Amino acid sequence: MKVLDKYILKQSVVNFLFGVILFVVLVSAGDLLFRLARLWWQEGFSLGEVVKIFFLSLPSLLIYILPVSVLLSVLLTVGRMSSDSEIIALRAGGVSFRRLTVPFFLFSLWVCAGTIIVQEVCLPWASVELKEIGKRVSGGELMPENTFFRDESEPGIERVFYVKTVDREKSLLLGVVVQEYDEEGLRRIINAQEASNEGGKWIFQEGTIYQMGEEGEIERVVRFEKEEVATAQSIEEIQKTQKNPQEMSFLELKNFIEGEKSRGRRTEQLELILWQKTAFPFASLVFVLIGISLGIVSPRSGRALGVGLSVLIVFAYYVVLSLGSALAEGGSLSPFWGTWMANIMGFATGGGLLWWKEKN
Fold first, then answer.
1. Predicted model pTM
2. Distances (CA, A) of 78 to 15, 60, 316
3. Looking at the predicted structure, is the pLDDT value of residue 139 above 50?
4. What gap in Å lies between CA 171 and CA 151, rounded to an integer?
5. Quick one: what percent of the chain has pLDDT higher than 70?
6. How far apart are alpha carbons 80 and 58 in whole angstroms?
7. By three-state DSSP, how is residue 242 classified?
8. Which of 148, 171, 145 is nearest to 158 (CA)?
């Protein structure tokens, strides 16, 4: 059986690589390539820098492309074996459909592990690198407008900043609101017209400080012309470490959610993203079951039909995933069951089709 496994794995790898290249081209052919072309022609980036940005953008795409490529690989491999009557020959030799799935499942486990590595290691690193390069795109912009970021450099104190607009020429943050937390919760709120980061300090101009009590009530209101707060972080350092939830690793996001819960904040959306980080990689196993079943049912499927079936199956998968996420957001399901509903239904559907095919 080792010969059979190697035979199937070799074909699966070739078709998988074809799928990865195909879907990368299809997904990046629109907005990504347009933005890269603009950087090259209008922003003065060199060809080498544009190529670097392209490869740094790949991890965010590969998280979704790798499982889909497994599906296409299985459809093409099983479809070709079925059309050449190799499946019939294997069945006549006593090989069950379940035994036939073993090399495909082994391959999908490798892809699942690779997807997790891309998600947990490559994506966080690539996002930091892209932010560093992105400074040139915005002409050295301090940070995006209408954005949140955190400063946790002072022991025991966490500050959550909201910035409305940015004055790039004067290096000022405008319309700044800062929530300052200590171990007991929200300590004070600083509302300032502008803020800057100079000499290890946040310098706030023309604003109001709301001192908060233990029960969350406002105890005192102080107006100021200038207020200084010590910090060990520069704006550049904050930019490098700032990540949105999709760019965080599973552990980073899990710790972030625990911190948000400790402050009494709602975390349903964040928990959905957290469990999606487990559901997406394991979609490879779901697609193997479905791909084997449909590949056997459609023995004449070539590459064009294989791509079409892959798109339809993935579309159905994301419809169920969106439905589960919507139910989780509404409180009807937990975030885990909401994100894993598509995988569970996929396992049931693929397993049922395979069982039915083996019995008939």
1. 0.68
2. 11, 29, 21
3. no
4. 18
5. 82
6. 30
7. coil
8. 148
